[in-house]
Amino acid sequence: MGADEAPFIVHETETKTGMPISEAxxxxxxxxxxxxxxxxxxxxxxYRIVDVARKVVGVGSxxxxxxxxxxxxxxxxxxxxxxxxxxxxxxxxxxxxxxxQRLIQGAPDIFLGxxxxxxxxxxxxxxxxxxxxxxxxxxxxxxxx
Length: 145
Description:
Helix content is 23%, strand content 25%. It has helices spanning 21-34, 38-44, 93-104; strands spanning 9-11, 53-55, 66-68, 71-75, 113-117, 120-126, 133-137, 140-144. A hairpin with a 2-residue loop joins strand 3 (66-68) and strand 4 (71-75).
């Protein structure tokens, strides 16, 4: 992924409970991939994790965990409406977010899904920070920031 850009993007080696980050992400990906359509499952099972970083995210997500693996794992907290609703239809808050996105978007992100790491609920989407790019030329690859 490249050099850290502290405090915005920082590599981590373990979770808050001490689990190696690669192990935690592998466990998460197993649950996340099961939330996808079959064609996406086949595609993502061909990849492997080579790098993970923690990213500071936007105003609406302050205080939540966010991981960057070219997919973005964002912590999903309970709805602000929870105190006014008897019971949610979803046990996983990430699934609640994904279901809402799929309802309101005609063509949602094809990698939109959910999973869990150490009891925390997350949803996943493509990373869209629009701050860089990759240019392919015969014989070389150029990564821009």
